[in-house]
């Protein structure tokens, strides 16, 4: 059943999944470190946004403050059916354009950035599809399955020239109880574990941060899905992952985008009247 489940949904969910990769350079090492992060694309009022975990962006900021530099940024859209011989989309990473929330005490862990212009066009050409509001849901709504789509860091490889490869996996999940160590983070997160032994999918969960968590319902001989969360962390002792609810965060971003549209329209109207 799980094999059929994976085959049925992987191709569809893959159209929304994007990796964000780069090379990290530090003075203490002659060789750059290859990094690949998990994330996904959503549509908010007609605009595209890339969503991942806030601690990823904050960790990059801390590394830069400590003297590291990053380059060769790419958005990997291979799971969407990219037909360009596996080439990723160049990405101009600008820290100031990212909105990131990373409170490790309360468990709030979100990051989002606008995708527009040539970047969006290239992703669309590669088969990427943004998740619309009709597919935003929450972990309390009944469903048949949950699934995580992400990249384990153990699978990341770099050819030393220009090609970064990584293994994207779909991990079937089941809801889990709140880990004892969660504390007040449980107010802002929900929990799940792999439905089968995790070593069938990964050895080390590092790298899944920012990955989308989907709920799936089988209806009228097809799988329907919604994005319900953003993977944040793992509790290794209990084998449980934490995820931040997506719909509440997206709704707040939707309000901000609507306000930005209104402000832009007012400014354009004022300029036209002048």
How would you characterize the overall build of this protein?
- The protein has 274 residues and is α+β, with helices and mostly antiparallel strands.
- The protein has a single domain, classed as Beta Barrel (Thrombin, subunit H).
- 23% of the residues lie in helices and 36% in strands.
- It contains four helices and 15 strands.
- The strands form three sheets. A seven-stranded antiparallel β-sheet has the order 5-4-1-2-3-7-6. A six-stranded antiparallel β-barrel has the order 8-11-12-15-14-13.
- The termini are far apart.
- The model has no long low-confidence stretch (mean pLDDT 87).
CATH class annotation: Mainly Beta
Mean pLDDT: 87
CATH superfamily: Trypsin-like serine proteases
Number of strands: 15
The CATH topology is given as Thrombin, subunit H
Question: What is the helix tally?
Answer: 4
Question: Can you write the helix and strand succession as a string?
Answer: HEEEHEEEEHEEEEEEEEH
N-to-C terminal Cα separation, in Å? Answer: 65 Å
Oligomer: single chain
Q: How many domain regions?
A: 1
Largest sheet: 7 strands, antiparallel
* Tertiary shape: globular
The spatial strand order of the largest sheet comes to 5-4-1-2-3-7-6
Gyration radius, in Å: 19 Å
In short:
This protein has 274 residues and is α+β, with helices and mostly antiparallel strands. It has helices at residues 2-14, 54-65, 117-125, 246-273; strands at 17-25, 33-44, 47-52, 69-76, 89-90, 99-103, 108-115, 145-150, 157-158, 164-165, 169-175, 190-194, 212-219, 222-235, 240-245.
């Amino acid at each position: 059943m799980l094999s059929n489940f994976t085959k049925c949904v992987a191709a569809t969910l893959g159209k929304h999944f994007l990796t964000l990769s780069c090379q990290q350079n530090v003075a203490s090492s002659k060789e750059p470190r290859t990094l690949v992060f998990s994330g996904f694309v959503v549509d908010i009022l007609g605009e595209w946004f890339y969503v991942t975990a806030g601690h990823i962006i904050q960790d990059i900021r801390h590394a830069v403050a400590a003297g590291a530099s990053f380059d060769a940024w790419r958005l990997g859209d291979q799971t969407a059916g990219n037909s360009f011989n596996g080439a990723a989309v160049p990405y101009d990473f600008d820290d100031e354009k990212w909105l990131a929330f990373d409170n490790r005490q309360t468990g709030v862990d979100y990051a989002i950035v606008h995708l527009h212009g040539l970047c969006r066009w290239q992703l669309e050409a590669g088969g990427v599809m943004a998740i619309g509001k009709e597919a935003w849901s929450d972990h309390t709504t009944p469903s048949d399955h949950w699934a995580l789509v992400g990249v384990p860091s153990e699978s990341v490889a770099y050819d030393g020239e220009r090609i970064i490869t990584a293994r994207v996996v779909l991990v079937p999940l089941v809801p889990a109880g709140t880990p004892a160590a969660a504390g007040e983070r449980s107010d802002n997160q929900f929990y799940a574990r792999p439905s089968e032994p995790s070593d069938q999918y990964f050895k080390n969960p590092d790298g899944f941060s920012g990955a989308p968590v989907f709920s799936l319902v089988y209806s009228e001989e097809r799988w329907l899905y919604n994005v319900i969360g953003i993977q944040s962390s793992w509790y290794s002792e209990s084998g449980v992952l934490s995820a931040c609810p997506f719909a509440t965060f997206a709704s707040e971003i939707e309000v901000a985008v609507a306000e930005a549209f209104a402000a832009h329209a007012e400014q354009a109207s004022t300029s036209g009247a002048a």
